[in-house]
Design brief:
heterotetramer, A alpha/beta, B alpha+beta, C mainly alpha, D mainly alpha, C: mainly alpha, globular, D: mainly alpha
């Protein structure tokens, strides 16, 4: 874990893709082992901020250090290996089955293969292990991504609008899971439209608008 | 959704470090790359092949050439050019030997007596010195000799 | 690097086996292209033309373009790209893996199309068998260069029309070396020059891929 | 001071030298015994070919490799690489055109599969591919990286293309093999005019490169301005 207790340090971070400033100057510091929620309207830059923190997109200007990796001079590939990403476009290869996808990912990062059955069962996909990913529903595909995070157990969890299509039972499952993850010492950064319902988790809420931080209260 | 009971250990696990031998590997691969290109250059330059056979070469490798298509170089013998509707026929000399060339297709503009040409075609048979050509190339020698006679004629050059 | 390469190659081949694109779309295309070229030559030439080697490599070039595109498309969807990016695989390993998988697929198709050209275009069987080693090396070089050009032309999301424009000049010498060594093999014994060209091209593309694939990959 | 002086003088000096080359080439130097006045192309074709194959293509490749090297990576390198490649595409096309004009009377055809002509054509396709690649990407950083890699690949292909075409063109089964003596004897005033033309066209290349570079700088400035505007507009989004 990085020496300083902060997992994220950003100063005027600007992210430009095809000429459009997704982030227009974000200055932010997040403590490691904390739960942070990033809210804001559609297009406020929530997903881009998460992608920046995951090393999935390059920094156009400004400076930043995430999990000890400098965003301008450091090796972004190293940063990408340290985070767990859960998006809403489904993960890994559409043509491979859930088990094959997890086997491939596990071998890539040296995670134990025998736990694959258990994590798939934990996210409720035990009946779908043999069907190719492209035939899974959007929700099931998201759970495959979650299964990988459970197997991967990253230092930083980046969850991009995990609550978007969940029913009530799913929401409580997620609240509980996030609680466990934070308790186990990992840092969690979730992006969501509205702040978390359950107050038990006391997250720090950061509000984005126009690609910048406009509100921050923990 | 699954049972709420949680037996899962979620303590973070560090990812295996990306091996930092990038520097040595880059140098090694660069060396291989340079070696490969040098191998190609050395093979290429050492054996840069001739563009054509002179009449002497062609004559003493007749058996090998047979009736195969190749390029023959020689000088157009004056007063032997006979322009037909199909093309042109003429005698071509090289060293002390001469070959009769029957070419189809209109000869190039500069085609005239006493100039070096390269013809592409093949002998009509193993022994005959009749050469059927499909193309005539005027070989402008690499030596550009001014028109005035007082310039010394350079030794036989090759195509530019 | 090698371990990643084998992992990625295994994944590509498994995707191929599961989606069967190669078996049901690319292979028939190869044979059909050969039949069409036979027809294009006209009845009296199709059987005994010396254009066998040239047509074989032209068909293999078109097949290679399809496969290169396919090899990039499976990586292309944004969900796939993001999740694979978090695995932080060694780019050189990814390059070698994908090139290896593509080479194996090209070899398989190559053998089938070679058999097709012997059957349909009556190219000599013995000569074609002798030409096989040179065919394999050329197809491997095509796979290495193709993987590089696939990533260059947008890695699955870029326009598919960009790939031929970028890759044809690089494929030209491979086509020449291939055609020449195949037709020389038909007349007995390929000239060493063509081996120099194809092996140098293979080594060069593997080297460039290992060095620069990482530059192309992270968007 | 020298920099401004050389900057301002580059254009006029190039024009003077070119004029001098043409004047010498067309009137002063004698016609060739075999080719007559056709040889005057000698003062145009080799010079353009020299600029196209070595000077402009070389500049682009060097600038691209410098761009790829982390320490010397800069927007300037990317601009020089792309402008040089654009100019080299023009010179490569001119090489082919003047080459064909010269070839027509001697070969009787506009295009002969001559080894040099063919490998130059392949290089021209590479240059056009490079320009197509630049148009296909609009993210400046990604575009710069990809075109730099493509330029490196093109550079390494030059020897491969050259020899494969050369051998393809001249090789026969069991051809006799001996080195070609390419001595290049040019006489008197022709020689000086030839060297002058080489120098004049090289200057022309740098003049064109600089002009194209300035255009690129303005284009980038306009692009940067639009970025600032987009940034300001984006930030206003967050205020209301």
């Amino acid at each position: 874990m990085s020496s300083s207790s902060r997992v994220v340090e950003l100063r005027d971070a600007v992210v430009l893709v095809d000429g459009f400033p997704l982030l227009s100057g974000v200055t932010l510091e997040l403590e490691s082992g904390s739960l942070n929620v990033v809210t804001g309207a559609n297009g406020a830059g929530k997903t881009s901020l998460l992608r920046l923190l995951g090393g999935l997109v390059a920094l156009s200007s400004g400076s930043g250090v995430v999990s000890g990796v400098d965003l301008t001079t450091g090796d972004r590939r190293e940063l990408r290996r340290r985070v767990g990403w859960l998006g809403h476009e489904g993960s890994f290869y559409d043509d491979l089955t859930a088990t094959e996808n997890l086997t491939f990912a596990a071998k890539a990062l040296g995670r134990p293969l025998d736990e694959i059955g258990r994590v798939l069962e934990r996210v409720g996909l035990s009946s779908r292990t043999k069907t190719p990913a492209k035939r899974l529903s959007a929700g099931q595909r998201r759970r495959l991504g979650l299964a990988w995070l459970l197997l991967r157990r990253p230092e930083t969890w980046l969850l991009d609008e995990p609550y978007a299509t969940l029913d009530d039972e799913g929401r409580t499952f997620f609240d509980e899971l996030i609680g466990d993850v934070v308790k186990s010492g990992a840092s969690v950064i979730v992006s969501a439209h509205d702040p978390l319902r359950s107050s038990a988790l006391l997250p720090r809420t950061i509000t984005l608008a126009g690609g910048r931080v406009v509100g921050d209260h923990s | 959704m699954p049972d709420t009971e949680d037996t899962f250990d979620l303590t973070p696990v560090a990812a295996p470090p990306t091996k930092r031998r990038g520097r040595w590997r880059t140098i090694g691969v660069l060396a291989v790359l340079v070696l490969a290109v040098l191998a190609l250059l050395s093979q290429g330059l050492l054996h840069s092949l001739n563009y054509f056979e002179t009449i002497d070469q062609a004559m003493n490798s007749r058996a090998q050439l047979g009736t195969e298509t190749f390029r023959l170089e020689g000088v157009v013998k004056p007063h032997t050019i006979d322009r037909t509707s199909r093309g042109a026929s003429f005698w071509m000399t090289g060293g002390d030997k001469k070959i009769f060339v029957d070419a189809t297709g209109s000869p190039p503009q500069l085609f005239q007596a006493n100039i070096p040409v390269v013809v592409e075609g093949h002998f009509t048979s193993e022994t005959s010195d009749k050469f059927v050509a499909t193309q005539i190339l005027v070989k402008h020698t690499a030596t550009y000799i001014a028109k005035y006679p007082n310039r010394v004629k350079a030794p036989n050059g090759t195509v530019r | 690097m090698i371990r990643t390469a084998l992992l990625v190659a295994g994944k590509d081949l498994r995707i191929e086996r599961r989606s069967r694109v190669l078996l049901w779309q690319v292979l028939p295309f190869g044979v059909m292209a050969l039949v069409l070229s036979g027809l294009a030559l006209g009845p009296n030439h199709a059987g005994n033309s010396s254009a066998g080697p040239g047509l074989f490599y032209l068909v293999m070039l078109l097949v290679a373009l399809l496969m290169i595109n396919r090899s990039q498309v499976i990586e292309g969807s944004s969900g796939t790209r993001t999740s694979i990016a978090t695995l932080g695989l060694d780019p050189a390993g990814v390059f070698l893996g994908k090139a290896l998988a593509l080479a194996l697929e090209l070899w398989l198709t190559g053998v089938v199309v070679l058999a097709g050209s012997v059957l349909l275009l009556h190219t000599a069987l013995v000569g074609s068998a002798e030409a096989l080693p040179s065919v394999l090396v050329i197809l491997a070089a095509l796979a290495a260069a193709g993987t590089l050009y696939g990533a260059l032309s947008g890695g699955g999301q870029g326009p598919a029309t960009l790939l031929p424009v970028l890759s044809f000049p690089a494929f030209a010498p491979l086509l020449i070396a291939g055609e020449r060594s195949y037709s020389d093999a038909l007349h007995g014994g390929a000239l060493w020059q063509w081996w120099v060209i194809s092996l140098v091209a293979l080594v060069v593309y593997l080297a460039i891929g290992i060095l620069l694939y990482g530059v192309l990959e992270d968007s | 001071m020298i920099k401004q002086l050389s900057q301002r003088l580059l254009g006029p000096v190039t024009l003077v030298l070119l004029a001098l080359t043409f004047w010498l080439g067309l009137w002063v130097t004698p016609p060739d015994r075999v080719q007559g006045n056709l040889v005057r192309l000698l003062y145009v074709h080799p010079a353009i070919a020299w600029v196209a194959l070595y000077v402009s293509f070389g500049t682009s490749v060097i600038a691209s490799s410098l761009y790829l090297w982390r320490r010397t990576r800069s927007v300037v390198m990317d601009r020089v690489a792309s402008c040089a490649m654009e100019v080299s595409a023009v010179f490569l096309a001119l090489t082919l055109i003047t080459g064909s004009i010269w070839g027509r009377p001697t070969w009787g055809v506009w295009w002969a599969w001559d080894a040099r002509l063919t490998s130059t054509a392949i290089l021209l396709v590479f240059a056009l591919g490079y320009l197509a690649l630049r148009r296909a990407n609009d993210d400046p950083e990604l575009r710069a990286r990809r075109s730099a890699v493509f330029a490196i690949i093109a550079a390494i292909n030059v020897p491969i293309d050259h020899f494969s075409v050369d051998w393809w063109h001249t090789l026969h089964q069991g051809a006799t093999v001996f080195t070609e003596n390419g001595n290049f004897l040019v006489h008197g005033s022709m020689l000086w005019t030839l060297f002058l033309s080489l120098f004049a066209f090289t200057l022309l290349f740098f003049w064109l490169l600089r002009a194209r570079y300035r255009l690129e700088v303005q284009r980038d400035a306009r692009y940067a301005a639009s970025l600032d505007e987009a940034l300001a507009q984006r930030r206003r989004e967050g205020v209301h």
